[in-house]
Write a structure and sequence with these properties.
single chain; mainly alpha; Serine Threonine Protein Phosphatase 5, Tetratricopeptide repeat; three-stranded antiparallel sheet; two-stranded antiparallel sheet; 31 helices; elongated
Length: 684
């Protein structure tokens, strides 16, 4: 087709048809009204429909839980594939804020000038890949299986459709309002109308890709004169009249179908029709519209570097800045960085339509700009320092968790203490992590003040309180430790779920038992473990610990009973079967002891001690071939293990194989001097 002759765009300020704009404004107001009703229903009813948040798709992809947000996203995507991006302009609350900001600025006589950048338009698609594609690639590389799609309830921690935790993945109210301010207002003032949609929204990037196959498009009718009124009224910064002239339809995936251009056309020569989508069109190079940029290649590189630096500095800062807000801030600060650089190298500099420098001299507005940019730069640098120390501390802490290296612990403490000292706000988890690091690296007394601070911020955190009790006990402050455990027991009583409360009290009693046992208070430890089992009879760890204490108190029958209960709860635990076999052997119940030794050997075939004990017991029961096989297996696993050397030597000596027997007994004597006297007796 031959492109039409394009006329110049009319002077700026042309207005879209107020009729349709009012309709769309009413629709977007309705979106916020529905959001408010959704929140009110939750507050009044205690439970409601799960939040229709698009980013819940990530939880479906990672956990396999089908959520209302996932289905909402699927419905939106399907509508875009057929009709185009109507959802963005008629249903997105962020775009509603952007348009409101543009309208307010217009009433104040401010007309933000949209910018064009080859680099910044890549932010949204890269964010899309980071959020939705990269986790799946990482899962495949790590060999993790794909999650199975399923429906879940609040009882499983994450409800699919009806939930009591409506705010489960939303930021605090203050952070949400700040996000709206940055992504809905500030970005429009600095970068122009709908700039968050163009430069930062990952969902917009996905819908833009889907729009390439959408047949529902804006097309030019026969009466189109190419006057440019459509471009003047387009709030998405699309050169509508040029696309209509070149292709007969708007092919830009930035078209949000708000239809302002349609109603603003003086010739009524634009219509919404189903036509061949851009993906199925072959557009010759001669008809492709040029890509425009307001920046030189050097400035584009500066934009990229400044954006990445800003994203590093602010994403997750103090646990407050969510990803989308960090993207918006990054785009804004990248642009301000370029404007600041221009102040040093250009004679004339503008921010949007505001002159900052004229004929080499800064204007009053330029002075105001400098007074804003300087503290902003200092704050950004400070934030970068805090984030770098936090990330370095977290990396060292993870390494310490793996290697238990004192050097790693010291590095983690050093970095995280800088975060705590220099941060303008507390960073969630840092104080508690410092307490844990001090405790795990063998300094319980140093851990106590950090854990106490962490509890001051989260007094109902039972895990923290139990960790503080352990640190106090290890620091020799048994009375304080018992007091903290009493508080933990009392706090557990305030939990809504009786089952959860019982589990928390049982865990607290179990810790009390462990601490008392470490202090040598066997009677008190037994009482604590019995209290734990009274709360939750199915705690195998409590049965095991209690059996050891009862065995030490010569209460073997009770110890065996608890080990049998634990083995039923955890039948695949080799240590449980081993301990049970030892006690059964001490009580003279050899046949059952052999059975449990054999189960333990099957579960842990490379444990030489299990095979040695089994061989020793079989020898006592008269099963010489079985005993010999087990003892030889123990020696094959651990050739320098003295016990099976001696036991096998004695067995062979009784069987008349004197040469091999004496060799084994001599070997046992070399490995353990306690067998030297027994060797002399064997020779005699």
């Amino acid at each position: 087709m031959h492109p039409r002759k394009v006329k110049p765009i009319p002077p700026e300020g042309a207005q879209p048809s107020s009729h349709l704009s009012r309709w769309r404004a009413g629709t977007l107001t309705g979106v916020y009204l529905l959001m408010g009703l959704h929140l009110a229903h939750w507050k009044l009813n205690g439970k409601t429909l799960a939040p229709l948040e698009l980013h819940e798709v990530m939880y479906t992809l990672e956990l396999g839980i089908v959520t209302a947000g996932f289905l909402f996203m699927a419905l939106d995507l399907a509508s875009v594939l057929l009709f185009g991006r109507f959802f963005c302009s008629w249903g997105c609350h962020i775009l509603a804020l952007e348009d409101l900001c543009a309208w307010l600025l217009e009433r104040l006589g401010i007309s933000p000038r949209p910018i064009r950048s080859r680099v910044l338009v890549l932010v949204a698609p890269l964010a899309l890949i980071y959020m939705f594609v990269w986790p799946q690639v990482a899962r495949v590389l790590e060999g993790r299986p794909a999650p199975r799609l399923r429906i879940a309830s609040d009882a499983e921690g994450w409800a699919s459709f009806v939930t009591t935790d409506f705010w489960r993945n939303l930021p605090p109210v203050g952070v949400a309002l700040l996000t709206f301010g940055v992504c809905g207002f500030l970005i429009v003032y600095v970068l122009g109308s709908r700039s968050f949609c163009r430069f930062a929204c990952p969902y917009g990037a996905l819908f833009g890709l889907a729009d390439r196959v959408a047949p529902g498009r804006l097309v030019a009718l026969d009466g189109c004169t190419g006057c440019g009124s459509c471009t003047a009224t387009c709030q998405s910064d699309i050169r509508v009249h040029e696309e209509l002239a070149a292709h007969g339809t708007v092919i830009s995936s930035s078209c949000l179908r708000d239809l302002d251009c349609l109603t603003g056309c003086p010739s009524t020569a634009i219509a919404y029709r189903f036509t061949r989508p851009p993906l199925l069109r072959r557009i010759p190079k001669s008809e492709r519209l040029p890509r425009r940029s307001d920046f030189s290649l050097g400035e584009e590189a500066l934009l990229a570097g400044a954006f990445l630096a800003s994203l590093f500095c602010f994403r997750g800062l103090y646990g407050l800045i969510p990803f989308l807000m960090a993207l918006g801030l990054g785009v804004i600060l990248a642009y301000l960085t370029v404007i600041t650089s221009r102040l040093f190298v250009r004679e004339h500099v503008k921010l949007g339509r505001t002159r900052l420098k004229v004929a080499g001299r800064p204007t009053r507005a330029g002075g105001v700009f400098a007074t804003i940019v300087l503290p902003l730069a200092i704050f950004s640098a400070h934030s970068g320092f805090v984030r770098s120390q936090q990330l370095a501390g977290e990396r060292a802490a993870r390494a310490f968790d793996t290697t238990a290296s004192p050097e790693r612990a010291a590095a983690a403490v050093r970095h995280l203490e800088r975060v705590d000292r220099w941060g303008l706000l507390p960073t969630p988890g840092v104080v508690a992590r410092l307490g844990s690091l001090h405790f795990s690296s063998g300094a319980p007394a140093a851990a106590v003040p950090w854990l106490e601070r962490a509890l001051g911020d989260s007094p109902a955190n039972l895990d923290l309180r139990r960790q503080l009790a352990r640190a106090l006990s290890d620091a020799g402050r048994a009375g304080r430790a018992e007091a903290e455990l009493e508080r933990a027991t009392a706090l557990a009583g305030g939990l809504e779920s009786a089952e959860h409360a019982a589990a928390e009290r049982a865990l607290t009693h179990e810790l009390r038992g462990a601490l008392r046992a470490e202090r040598g208070d066997a009677r008190g430890a037994i009482d604590a473990y019995e209290a734990a089992l009274a709360e939750e009879p199915g705690r195998a760890s409590a049965h095991l610990a209690l059996s050891e204490l009862l065995a030490g108190a010569e209460r073997l029958a009770e110890a065996v009973a608890h080990l049998r209960a634990a083995a039923l709860l955890e039948p695949d635990s080799a240590p449980l079967h081993y301990n049970l076999a030892v006690l059964l052997g001490q009580r003279g119940e050899g046949a059952e002891a052999v059975e449990h030794y054999r189960i333990a050997a099957r579960l842990d075939p490379d444990d030489a001690q299990i095979h040695n004990n089994l061989g020793f017991l079989l020898a006592r029961l008269g099963d010489a071939p079985g005993a010999e096989a087990s003892l030889r297996r123990a020696l094959a696993i651990a050739p320098d293990f003295a016990h099976p050397c001696f036991n096998l030597g004695r067995l062979l000596l009784e069987d008349g194989r004197e040469a091999e027997a004496l060799a084994l007994l001599e070997r046992a004597a070399r490995l353990d001097e306690r067998y030297a006297a027994l060797l002399d007796a064997a020779r005699d």
